[in-house]
Amino acid sequence: MDLNIRRKSTRAPVTGSLIETYPHDLQMYKIPPTENISLQEFETLALERLTLLRSLATATTLKGLRAYSDEWKEYVISDLRNQGLKYYSKLFEISRCGATEADLQARRKDHIAHFILRLAYCRNEELRRWFVARELELFKMRFINMSGDAVETFFKLNNLCYNNISEEEKTEIITFLRESTSHPNIENMKFYKVKFFEVLDLVKLRKVFLSGGYAYIPHKDFVSVLSAQFRTHLRQSLAVACHHLGEIEQDERLVCLLKGLHQSYTGNNYADTKAVVPIESLDSLSVKSFPLCMRQLHDQLRLAHHLKHGGRLQYGLFMKGIGVTLEDSLRFWREEFTKIMDLDKFEKQYAYNVRYNYGKEGSKKNYSPFSCLRIINETVGPGDCHGCPYRHCDVSNLKNKLQGYGLDPQAVNDIVDVTKKGHYQVACSKYFDAVHSIDLGLGINHPNQFFEESQKLIKGEIKVEIKKENKATVKKEALEEMDFDEISEWN
Amino acid sequence: MVGQYDENLLSDMLPIYYTKFFPQNVFCRWLSCGSSPQPLANRELSFTLADDVYLRYLSISNQKELQTLFQKKCPHKLDIGAVYNTKPSIARHDSVVLARELVFDIDLTDYDEVRTCCQEAKVCQKCWKFMVVACEILDKALKDDFGFQSILWVFSGRRGIHCWVSDYEARTLDSPGRGAVADYLCLIMGGENQSKKVHLGSDNLHTSIRRALNIIDKYFEEILQDQEFFATADGLKGLLKLIPDEALRTQVEKKLEKLPESSLERWKHFVNVYEGYCRENGFAMRKIKYLVEEIKIQYCYPRLDVNVTKGFNHLLKSPFSIHPKTGKVSIVFKPNNARRMKLDEVPTIHSLLDDSAADSAQHQNNMKTSVKNFQEVVFSLEKSEAMRRKTDANISIDF
To answer: CDD domains, per this entry (chain B) (predicted)?
Structure first.
């Protein structure tokens, strides 16, 4: 392969064809790029897009900014500028259909880089989810910030034709539209009729009027329709890409590059542990080394000798993660449950689930313990005790509980304050500090991480006397380890 | 006649029940229509045999096979699963779920924190009213909002109801779609550690919530008197916990403590105090704008088991299966008739098989009505399936 020839072809692109390929800033990425590019450009483009996506993740996860808000947008733009990615900051700021050479080049890079990252992020579900979430944020942001005429062109280019409903039809349902649509001044808006499953995000939040299977949306809500299409398309494409990974990986030069790209994001999933924890020590461990979500499940189990399905799953997998063996685990659940039921009933109805958690039944997958993200997003219904206590407890209940555990009143107030603001993981970190009488400020993103950090502390693997500088570095490291995921969903 | 029911006799009675009473023909038609365009054989059935032996990944290709399977295995309980890309017994864990009715499961145990007449597995005519409300609200939402038509309502045999939506769009709805529908319909959220489980915010109330409230209002006072939610000290405490505004809570507490125990009386006074408080403190309105509505919903709105709805391949008890613990048939009922349904008139396997039982005639009659209800839904489903196939064919010809 002659790399020189490749480089040549990229340096002198034919502008005429570029404007045909890239008429608009915003792309749906339906057709993959076909031109030849140099390895060097391949790498640069990939890294630059990764910077862009990371910047989005930082804005939502670490800075705690609300996605698509002005502050969020400003943060990303200034971050991109600082990193020298002017073309991305421009694309991010506003989408148009200009035709300057710079516009076209930016779109070309955007297009190619998107497809390179697909290859890097298709290999497992965790990566796919992260990638889809980021690309979706990017797409939505760019759609929202499209100039008026660009919107029209975009619809035309992508063959999206929707007809608005007649004035008579609108007058008929105007009261319902007013009740059920979350925009002011709907009188002056044109409304469109789409199937309800095209705007699931609006349906989920009850922010759209539904009738006879159709959703009535104003122009502004088209971002829902398109992002849903974008998401579905991207998910399918990633599955296809994953299928063809084998062919691509025959080229070793690409293998190293693609595999290296995402590595910083595959945190520990705690599915396999080497440690062994005897169940006799669970009571004492739960006091200091269990995060509150697991401590309350443990307490509840000891108290009621029963947990509902969600609780058994959350606590059972956590136990597996800290190193309770299958045999011990079975014994543990059996001892509790048989206080209120026959042994026979336990063996028939519950033992299966315990073995299932350890991958011994059903599809025999080795299930990973739940991360904070998963727990925070759990559905918690009547009678359930699982979920994240900072999210799924009344403030007064939480306060009583913490006071009951004998935590320092100041610490209790601190925890409750951040909980009220919706920073559940920060609350958990403060709880960690409070039970260990320390000031570490760890970034907690997994209950099993909480456990491991606590054990390290207790066994003296972390130096406890912390000077200011030390503290800062610990914090930074912890943040970098964080698993940036679809956190925007619970904002 | 519950006293006469004996679980140990099931194995003797079931073969007769399956041959003589189970509507095999309609059942197969319902399932194959709900599986199309895949063949009936791709649909998973699962059996629970005597002693809780559990058989998964069974399937049938016609009524004859169903009858044979019934006679051979004599299932104590029959569950229905999803439609796969192949016969479920072949690929098992590797097969792909292609379709599945959109299902809803409402269980009275989830009402334990509000109902006072029964707890856990017990049910009575009083708590059945919660199911009546749930059924009416859901049925209306599924029809009006989502445009679904083939909706089957089934009594679960003990303490709840199931709903099966067989429309093509519902059957093929993907997981995120099911999740969104479930979330749209689910207003009560939170577990043991949250007292206030309904938060309506301060914007306009969504059309579907207004409609649900209108339905609840038809029953609210009746249920309030049945259940006496606020008569006891605990019941009153439960109400007070739902009031987020401290000053209002104190006012209400002072007022209600002095009143006689009647919940209806207490409720009316609560609403009075609330309205007075809102007039005086306009600024506090945002937080408690819909407090009365929120409380009504918390006490009466359907409590869905959303995991059943969200899961694409969740198994659910089949209509006309016998509940092994009560012997009751999972009968199909019409939503507008739910109110008149009497739990002790639900046919049991015993009374169906024993002509000399006191309520045998009535039970046999109710069984017939139930099969007729089932037929009606299946006929209309077959009609709309035929229509759909015709339109699909036309569209492909146009191309």
So the answer is: AE_Prim_S (cd04860)
B178 shares its domain with B204: no
Q: Flag if A383 and B207 touch (Cβ within 8 Å).
A: no
**Residue-wise pLDDT tens digits, A127-165:** 888 899 999 999 999 998 887 788 888 888 888 888 889
Interface check for B193 against chain A (CB to CB < 8 A): the answer is: yes
Q: What is the mean pLDDT of residues B201-220?
A: 95
Do B265 and B313 fall into the same domain?
no
- Contact (Cβ atoms closer than 8 angstroms) between residue A252 and residue A135: no
Asked if A380's CB is within 8 angstroms of B191's CB, the reply is yes
For residue A337, give the amino acid letter: F
- For residues B374 and B381, give the distance between their C-alpha atoms in angstroms, rounded to a whole number: 11
Residues B348 and B271 in one domain: no
Question: Cα separations (Å) of A56 from A71, A147, A225, A259, A374?
Answer: 12, 22, 22, 21, 20
State the residue range of the domain holding B244.
191-300
**Does residue B145 have an active-site annotation?**
no
Q: How many domains does chain B have?
A: 2
Among the partner-chain residues A205, A209, A382, the one whose CB lies closest to the CB of B191 is A382
Domain boundary pick from B283, B300, B317: B300
Chain A, window 184-243: residues with a beta carbon less than 8 angstroms from a chain B beta carbon: 195-197, 200-201, 203-206, 209-214
What confidence category does residue A478 fall into, taking pLDDT thresholds of 50, 70 and 90? Answer: very low
Which of chain B's residues have a Cβ under 8 Å away from the Cβ of A227? none
Residues A200-249 pLDDT 10s: 999 999 999 999 999 999 988 889 999 999 999 999 999 899 888 888 88
Residue B292, pLDDT score: 96
User: In chain A, what are the domains?
Assistant: 3-156+231-265 (1.20.930), 160-227 (no CATH), 279-490 (no CATH)
Using CB atoms, pick whichever of A176, A203, A205 lies closest to residue B181. Answer: A203
pLDDT at B191: 86
What's the sign of the alpha-carbon dihedral A177, A182, A185, A189?
A: negative
- Are B104 and B162 contacting, i.e. CB atoms less than 8 angstroms apart? yes
d(CA A321, CA B147): 46
> Does the beta-carbon distance from A213 to B179 stay under 8 Å?
no
Rounded Cα gap, residues B197 and A392, in angstroms = 10
Distance of residue B177 Cα from the nearest chain A Cα, in angstroms: 6
Residue A5: predicted pLDDT: 39
Which residues of chain A neighbour B185 with C-beta distances below 8 Å? none
Active site annotation includes B105:
yes
